[in-house]
Write a structure and sequence with these properties.
The complex is a heterodimer. Chain A is mainly α. Chain A has one domain (about 5-45, about 60-225). Helices cover about 65% and strands about 10% of the residues of chain A. The relative contact order of chain A is 0.16. In chain B, about 75% of the residues lie in helices and about 0% in strands. The chains are: A mainly alpha, B mainly alpha. Chains A and B meet through helix 4, helix 5 and helix 6 of A and helix 2, helix 3 and helix 4 of B.
Chain lengths: ~230, ~230
């Protein structure tokens, strides 16, 4: 499909040498929402979890120390900015790099917690993210080899899609699914949520939701069969 | 085809075999991960899948593909370091939580690291000096790696002889300043191309200090890890 039927009215391009950014209302909306959420994260404080004890009347409070809080907020802001960048970029190269950055930062947000089960989940998620960098970067490289460009603006102007490009796009999809930890790989990510520290943890979830929407748009631009 | 005419046919015919080789290596790595049970072995095997990614990207062989390789390599390194940190801190939490069950002198550093090699006590200072000197002579990325290896050897050998180690507090600051040198050199290439010699020297020296201090930093981190014990 072409760009304007996916993203609304075509607002214009920003030529920066090889990298041609293009603007549509869809991208602008997603980017602004993500930046607003990042701003909310900048000014918010962390929560304190209250766990009910079994057989007693006392509650145990699980809170986050100042050092851990600062580190987690910093990484969450980086994650928000990377997601906003992935929303607005018009280049598959930048999208791949933002995706890899989101994957690393997601590990970092939960890496400082004390619960062993959460660390275990973060470890498994990190392994999946590392393995999925093969299809992520490999898919981008195969698309580059079979079309000669990574600019989405150029890719949308191509007349046909070769079988190799479709293969690369499918590899890219697998990579994005693994790096953002959505459906078949979501089990470890759900476990990562059991740690105290909302709202910073929500960015892990929100970034993968936004990235999947953008990834579907990119795949529809690349694959011309539909 | 997209391949320009001046590329010899043998190079462009290597593309498909390289892609297949990368995919097969990745598949073998994934099968090994599925069969392996110990966490540390799984982590090491995961790196094989990352190397397969480098093969596939490297098969394309254009400048844009090289621009994909560099962040891919950095991402792999950063992720493997982050995950190994997670693994270490998880093992430490496990050890701390059931400390009563364990014997008192159990190692808190979960990985076996024995350093009783003869080279650590005989001529380590001389070797470190030779490495640093050769690294400064080389400059650039390779020189930084060699000089950093010299610093690392010095730190480890002092540690293994039980001597106190100097604390380089500002080593990350050095790393940051040399990063700035590199960026300035890089920008000068584009702004004033006639100053290419100056910018080349700036970039090479910045990179030397950057890489050397990075490897030195690993030595410092290891010292902190020992201190915790």
């Amino acid at each position: 499909m072409d760009i304007s039927s996916l993203g609304g009215d075509f607002l214009g391009i920003i030529p920066l040498g090889d990298i041609v950014l293009y603007l549509t209302p869809f991208h602008l909306f997603m980017c602004v929402v993500m930046l607003l959420f990042t701003f909310l994260i900048c000014i918010s404080k962390t929560e304190t979890q209250v766990e009910a004890s079994f057989g007693k009347l006392e509650d145990t409070k699980v809170s986050v120390g100042l050092n851990e809080f600062k580190q987690r907020r910093f990484l969450s802001i980086i994650c928000g900015i990377a997601t906003a960048g992935a929303m607005i970029t018009g280049d598959l190269f930048n999208f791949t790099l933002f995706m890899a950055l989101i994957g690393i930062v997601n590990i970092g947000i939960v890496s400082a917690v004390k619960q062993t089960s959460v660390l275990n989940a973060a470890y498994q998620y990190g392994l999946i993210a590392m393995m999925c960098s093969l299809p992520l970067f490999g898919g981008a490289a195969i698309i580059l080899a079979s079309t000669g460009t990574l600019s989405l603006f150029e890719l949308s102007n191509l007349a046909t899609t070769s079988a190799m490009t479709v293969f690369g796009a499918l590899l890219l999809l697998i990579g994005i699914l693994g790096e953002s930890g959505v459906a078949p790989f979501f089990a470890t990510k759900a476990e990562m949520f059991r740690t105290p520290g909302s709202p910073f943890l929500v960015i892990i979830h929100l970034s993968s939701l936004f990235v999947v929407i953008r990834a579907i748009e990119i795949l529809l631009i690349i694959i011309k069969v539909i | 085809m997209l391949v320009p005419e001046f590329v010899p046919g043998i190079f462009s015919s290597m593309y498909l075999p390289a892609i297949y080789a990368g995919l097969i290596v990745g598949f073998i790595g994934l099968m090994a991960i599925a069969m392996e049970k110990r966490d540390i072995h799984i982590l090491i095997l995961t790196d094989i899948v990352g190397l397969a990614m480098l093969i596939i990207v490297g098969a394309v062989g254009t400048d844009l593909a090289e621009a994909l390789i560099l962040p891919g390599l950095v991402v792999e390194l950063a992720e493997i370091m982050a995950i190994s940190e997670i693994l270490i801190s998880r093992e430490m939490h496990k050890i701390e939580s059931n400390k009563k069950k364990m014997p008192k002198n159990a190692s808190i550093f979960p990985l076996p690291l024995v350093l009783d090699m003869e080279i650590m006590t005989t001529s380590s200072n001389f070797l470190a000096l030779v490495l640093i000197g050769y690294g400064v002579f080389l400059t650039g990325f390779t020189g930084g790696a060699v000089a950093g290896g010299g610093v690392l050897l010095y730190v480890i050998s002092r540690k293994s002889r039980g001597l106190p180690i100097f604390v380089f507090d500002g080593i990350s600051g050095v790393s940051g300043i040399s990063w700035c040198l590199w960026i300035i050199g890089f920008a000068l290439f584009f702004i004033a191309p006639n100053l290419w010699l100056l910018s080349l020297t700036l970039a090479a020296c910045g990179l030397l200090m950057k890489v050397a201090s990075k490897l030195g930093l690993i030595g410092i981190l290891m010292r902190e890890e020992f201190k915790r014990e």
